[in-house]
């Protein structure tokens, strides 16, 4: 079973192994390589067949949980010792600290929304963007353009007892999910994408490897909410009979046999340090 650590607690060797596995996946030319994950995120950015799987819906959390499990599995096929690290942006809040250091994610873009110039993903030779609606072949960031969410805001979201609420979209105001996804104050997940900017502000945000550290933290926050309120199927909504979104026991494309119910309790697969 894997243990997902805070990025600030990784050793130098663990950081190097994570970067090497990410680059190894990027170098693969067939199968579930890095660009397959980018393509899949773009494909499921909006509704598919009238169903919102990945965003603006209750299954935002379970869909990305499975997405992270699949990505972590792909990294572990390269290096079995690698686990996803998480970026806790309530404590690491600068553009030069964890995880934006030269030995992990590298730093800011140059100028307004320019190419990243430091670290393992700087420039199109080290890290070439090939699947993107924008024309840039270099990773771009425009960090620090707003405030990151605070731990008090996180606590306020984790205190909401209801998982989600009708109308199960960006205007749902009665549940935890929409506050954590970020269409409802305090806008946790969305505002961190915007804070990093560049590719992280686009549909192809997984082109920036910090996507995985950010979403690992979002999954950790959901897990903290589950620890408080329950990992059982009574703590996912809607249960059944809701059109346009994924009910508790409905399959989440593109993973056959995977439903919100099957991923609710992750503790046999991985835990958070
Ligand atoms: Cu995201």
TrEMBL record:
State the protein's name.
Tyrosinase
Pfam families associated with the record: Tyrosinase (PF00264)
Q: Which GO terms describe its molecular function?
A: metal ion binding; oxidoreductase activity
**Which InterPro entries would you find in this protein's record?**
Di-copper_centre_dom_sf (IPR008922), Tyrosinase/Hemocyanin (IPR050316), Tyrosinase_Cu-bd (IPR002227)
* Cofactor(s) listed in the protein's UniProt record: Cu(2+)
Q: Which UniProt keywords apply?
A: Copper, Metal-binding
What domain of life is recorded for the organism? Answer: Bacteria
Residue span(s) of domain Tyrosinase copper-binding: 55-72, 208-219
Keyword Secreted assigned to the entry: answer is no
**What's the family?**
Belongs to the tyrosinase family.
Is Metal-binding found in the keyword set?
A: yes
Looking up SUPFAM superfamilies in the UniProt record yields: Di-copper centre-containing domain (SSF48056)
């Amino acid at each position: 079973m894997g243990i997902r650590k805070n990025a600030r607690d990784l050793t130098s060797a663990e950081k190097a192994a994570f970067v090497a596995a990410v680059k190894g996946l990027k170098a693969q030319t067939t199968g579930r390589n890095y660009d397959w994950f980018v393509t899949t995120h773009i494909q499921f950015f909006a509704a598919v067949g009238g169903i919102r799987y990945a965003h603006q819906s209750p299954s935002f959390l379970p869909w990305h949980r499975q997405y992270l499990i699949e990505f972590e599995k792909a990294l572990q096929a390269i290096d079995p010792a690698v686990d996803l690290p998480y970026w806790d942006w309530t404590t690491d809040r600068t553009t030069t600290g964890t995880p934006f250091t030269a030995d992990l994610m590298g730093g800011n873009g140059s100028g307004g929304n320019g190419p990243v110039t430091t670290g393992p993903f700087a420039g199109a030779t080290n890290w070439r963007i090939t699947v993107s609606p924008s024309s840039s072949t270099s990773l771009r960031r425009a960090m620090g353009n707003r405030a990151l969410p605070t731990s008090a805001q996180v606590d306020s979201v984790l205190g909401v007892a209801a998982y989600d609420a009708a109308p199960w979209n960006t205007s749902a105001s009665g549940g935890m999910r929409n506050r954590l996804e970020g269409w409802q104050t305090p806008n946790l997940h969305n505002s961190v994408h915007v804070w990093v900017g560049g590719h992280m502000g686009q549909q192809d945000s997984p082109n920036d490897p910090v996507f995985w550290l950010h979403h690992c933290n979002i999954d950790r926050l959901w897990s903290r909410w589950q620890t408080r309120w329950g990992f059982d199927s009574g703590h996912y909504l809607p249960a059944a009979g809701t059109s346009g979104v994924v009910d508790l026991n409905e399959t989440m494309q593109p993973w056959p046999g995977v439903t919100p119910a099957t991923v609710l309790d992750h503790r046999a697969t991985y835990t958070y340090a």
